[in-house]
Amino acid sequence: MPKPKEARSLGAACFVELRTLEDLGRLTSAAERAPLPIFAFNSDLGVVHIAQADFFVDTAVFYFLRAVEKRHFPSYRKTAGVESVSLTNSSGDPTFIYSPIISLKQIPKAFISGLGRKDEVKTKIESLEVDEIARAASLAKLAAYRMKYDEPSLPFFTYPDRGRWVLGTFAKIDDYEEDPLFFYTFSDTIDGFIRYSINRPDKVLFTKNVDAPGHLYRKVIGIAGMHPLVD
Question: Which residue intervals of the chain are DSSP H helices?
Answer without folding.
Answer: 21-29, 109-112, 136-144
